[in-house]
Inverse folding.
C-alpha cells in the first residue's frame, strides 16, 4: 500500500481545526487498540497484592518479573506445574516443519497451476480452493480416526501433518497468483532451449520467488502458531501447542487466580507472531489481503 | 539400431516430461480428494448414523438432525451466531471504513497508525481473548476502574451474565478484526482514480459529499469481500469463545463451532456432533460458493 501522493484534501487555513480533530480521533483509535496490550504488560509486571488493590490501567508501583518466571517455568497447566515453556517448544517444533513443507509444496503446485496447465487443471484448482474455506469442524472426526489408525493420535507429528494438509490449498493459491503475473514467454523460451520442468522451476522461477516465499512463510507461520482448533483436538497432555496450554492455564479453576501470570503467559504466547509482524508488517499485510481476496 | 533406441528414448522422456506436472501434482490432488472431500462425505455419513462414543456405520437416516433441531442448545448457538455475526460484521465495517477514510487524508504518521490498528491480527484469539477476559473481569477489571473513578454503582458483569455474555465476544472480535477491514478499505480507496475526485472538487462538491456519493459507492466490491470474509470468520469463530467464556455461563454464549466441539469431543456424541458440523459446512458453502463463482467469473472476464 503506497502512500498517496498529495492530491486530495487541499489544506485551507480554516481547515486547521478540522485537522486537529482528525488527528484526535486517529490517536484515540490508536489508544483503543493499544489498551489491551498495555493492560497485559502492566498487569504482568504487578504482584497479585498490587492487582487486588490497584486498577486496570494503573502503572505498577513496584515492577516484578515474578509472574513471567512463573508463567514460563512453574505455573500449573492442567495437572503439571512446569509453566508453558515445554508447550512453547512444542509450538516451535510444530510450526517450523509445517510452515516449510506446506510452503515448498505450495510453490511447486502454484508453478504447475500457472505455467504447466493441463486439461482439467483449472477445475482441480477450483476444487482445491474450496479447501481454504471449509469450516474445519467438518473434517475433525474423520481426521481424528485416521490419525488414530496410523498411531499418530495425540502426537506432534500428527498435528504437523494436519497443518500441512490443510495449509496446502492456501499456499498453492498464494504461489499460483504470484506466478500468473510472471510472463509465460519466460518459461516458453526456456522450454525451447530444452530446459525441463524442474530445471525451469529451480533456475528461473525460484530465484524470482523471494517476495512470495516471504509472504507465504509469514502467513503460514502466523496461522499455524496461532491455531487452537487443531491443537486442542489432535494433541493432548505434553504434546499440546502453546495456545492450548495458554487456554488451559487461563481456564484453570483450581487455586487462586493469578492474573499477572495469565498475562505474562499470553504475552509469551503472542511474542513470536507479534515480533514477525513488527519486523515484516508489509509482508504480513500482503499475505492477509492475498489470503482474503482469494481467487 | 542405436538410432531407433535413441528415438524411443527421447519419445519416452518427452512423454514423461509431458506428464511430469500431473505426476508432481498427484499427491496434492490425492490429499485434497481424501482429506477434504472424502472426509466431508465421511462426516456426513457419521451424521446419519447412531454413533455415540464410537462411530457406527449403519445408516439411521436423519435421527441426529431431528435431535439437533429439537435441541434448545443448538438454537441458542445458532441465535448467538446470528447476533454475534450481525454485530461483528456491521461494527467491523463501520469502524474499518471510518478509519480508512480518516487515514486517507494525507496523515503524517499514517504508517505508524496503520501498524497500531492492525497488530491484533497478528495475535492468536487465545492471546487477545485472555487480555479481554481480564479487562472485562467483573471484580477487578473495567468495573473496578469506573467505580474508582467515582461511579460507585457501576456494574459491568457481561462476562458472567448469561444474557450479555455473547456481547463480550462481539467486543473482543470487533477489536481484533477492525484493523484488517480498515486495510481492505484503504487499499480500495487508494485504487480510486484521483481524476474523478478532482473533477468533483472542481464542480464544488464538499469532501464528505464526495465520499458519500462517489467514493464509497465505487467500493462496492470491497464491501462485498469484507462481508464475505467477516461472515466466514464469524461462522468459524471458536478460539475466542473458548478462552473468553468457554461458551458460558451455562451454554449462553455457545456458537455452532463450540457446540460441535463440545458434543463431538468432550461429550462423545459423535453422530450428533457430526450433524452440527454438517450444518456449519452447509452454511459456509451457501456463502462461499456464490462468492468464489463471482470472483472466478470476474477474473475470466477481465
Amino acid at each position: 500500500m503506497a502512500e498517496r501522493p498529495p492530491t486530495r484534501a487541499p489544506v485551507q487555513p480554516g481547515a486547521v481545526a478540522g485537522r486537529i480533530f482528525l488527528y484526535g480521533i486517529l490517536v484515540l483509535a490508536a489508544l483503543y487498540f493499544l489498551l489491551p496490550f498495555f493492560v497485559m504488560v502492566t498487569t504482568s509486571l504487578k504482584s497479585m497484592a498490587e492487582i487486588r488493590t490497584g486498577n486496570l490501567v494503573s502503572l505498577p508501583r513496584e515492577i516484578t518479573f515474578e509472574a513471567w518466571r512463573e508463567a514460563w517455568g512453574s505455573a500449573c497447566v492442567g495437572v503439571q506445574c512446569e509453566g508453558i515453556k515445554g508447550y512453547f517448544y512444542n509450538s516451535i517444533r510444530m510450526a517450523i516443519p509445517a510452515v516449510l513443507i506446506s510452503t515448498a509444496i505450495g510453490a511447486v503446485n502454484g508453478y504447475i497451476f500457472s505455467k504447466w496447465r493441463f486439461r482439467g487443471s483449472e477445475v482441480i484448482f477450483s476444487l482445491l480452493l474450496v479447501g481454504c474455506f471449509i469450516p474445519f469442524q467438518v473434517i475433525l472426526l474423520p481426521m481424528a480416526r485416521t490419525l488414530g489408525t496410523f498411531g499418530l493420535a495425540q502426537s506432534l507429528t500428527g498435528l504437523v501433518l494436519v497443518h500441512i494438509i490443510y495449509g496446502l490449498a492456501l499456499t498453492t493459491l498464494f504461489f499460483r497468483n504470484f506466478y500468473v503475473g510472471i510472463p509465460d514467454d519466460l518459461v516458453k523460451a526456456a522450454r525451447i532451449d530444452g530446459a525441463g520442468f524442474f530445471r525451469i522451476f529451480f533456475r528461473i522461477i525460484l530465484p524470482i520467488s523471494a517476495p512470495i516465499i516471504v509472504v507465504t512463510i509469514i502467513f503460514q507461520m502466523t496461522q499455524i502458531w496461532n491455531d487452537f482448533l487443531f491443537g486442542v483436538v489432535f494433541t493432548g497432555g505434553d504434546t499440546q501447542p502453546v495456545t492450548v496450554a495458554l487456554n488451559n492455564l487461563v481456564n484453570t479453576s483450581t487455586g487462586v487466580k493469578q492474573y499477572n501470570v495469565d498475562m505474562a503467559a499470553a504475552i509469551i504466547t503472542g511474542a513470536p507472531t507479534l515480533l514477525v509482524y513488527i519486523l515484516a508488517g508489509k509482508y504480513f499485510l500482503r499475505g492477509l489481503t492475498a489470503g482474503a481476496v482469494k481467487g | 539400431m542405436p538410432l531407433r533406441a535413441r528415438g524411443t528414448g527421447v519419445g519416452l522422456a518427452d512423454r514423461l516430461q509431458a506428464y511430469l506436472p500431473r505426476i508432481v501434482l498427484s499427491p496434492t490432488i490425492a490429499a485434497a480428494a481424501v482429506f477434504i472431500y472424502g472426509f466431508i462425505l465421511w462426516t456426513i455419513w457419521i451424521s446419519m448414523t447412531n454413533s455415540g462414543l464410537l462411530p457406527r456405520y449403519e445408516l439411521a437416516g436423519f435421527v441426529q438432525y431431528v435431535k439437533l433441531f429439537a435441541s434448545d442448545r443448538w438454537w441458542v448457538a445458532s441465535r448467538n451466531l446470528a447476533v454475534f455475526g450481525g454485530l461483528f460484521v456491521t461494527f467491523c465495517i463501520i469502524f474499518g471504513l471510518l478509519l480508512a477514510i480518516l487515514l486517507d487524508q494525507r496523515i503524517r504518521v499514517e504508517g505508524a497508525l496503520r501498524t497500531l490498528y492492525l497488530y491484533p491480527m497478528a495475535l492468536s484469539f487465545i492471546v487477545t481473548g485472555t487480555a479481554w477476559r481480564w479487562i472485562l473481569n467483573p471484580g477487578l477489571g473495567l468495573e473496578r476502574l469506573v467505580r474508582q473513578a467515582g461511579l460507585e454503582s457501576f456494574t459491568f458483569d457481561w462476562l458472567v451474565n448469561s444474557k450479555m455474555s455473547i456481547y463480550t465476544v462481539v467486543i473482543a472480535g470487533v477489536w481484533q478484526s477492525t484493523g484488517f477491514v480498515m486495510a481492505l478499505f484503504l487499499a480500495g480507496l487508494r485504487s480510486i482514480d484521483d481524476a474523478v475526485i478532482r473533477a468533483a472538487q472542481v464542480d464544488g462538491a464538499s469532501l464528505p459529499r464526495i465520499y458519500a456519493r462517489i467514493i464509497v459507492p465505487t467500493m462496492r466490491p470491497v464491501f462485498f469481500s469484507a462481508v464475505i470474509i467477516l461472515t466466514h470468520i464469524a461462522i468459524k469463530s471458536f478460539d475466542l469463545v473458548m478462552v473468553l467464556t468457554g461458551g458460558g455461563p451455562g451454554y449462553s454464549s455457545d456458537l455452532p463451532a463450540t457446540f460441535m466441539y463440545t458434543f463431538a469431543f468432550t461429550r462423545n456424541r459423535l453422530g450428533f456432533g457430526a450433524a452440527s458440523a454438517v450444518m456449519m459446512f452447509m452454511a459456509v458453502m451457501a456463502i462461499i460458493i456464490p462468492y468464489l463463482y463471482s470472483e472466478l467469473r470476474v477474473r475470466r472476464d477481465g
